[in-house]
TrEMBL record:
This is Transcriptional regulator. It comes from Microbacterium aoyamense.
Amino acid sequence: MEPYTPVELARLLGYRHEARPGLVVRSYLRKVYPNHIKNARWELNEAQAADVLANVPRAKPESSP
């Protein structure tokens, strides 16, 4: 299986209209993996992706005016 990216995982969590796609996921990953090389691409395996999906809060639905 191909690796997952923070942008893909953020979309699965409902973050679709952010100015910096995937930022919420990358912020979580920086806390969990502090030794990750700065500015290196995040490529996550299934276990890591499952961890993100279980621990990063889902986006709140946008309310209609």
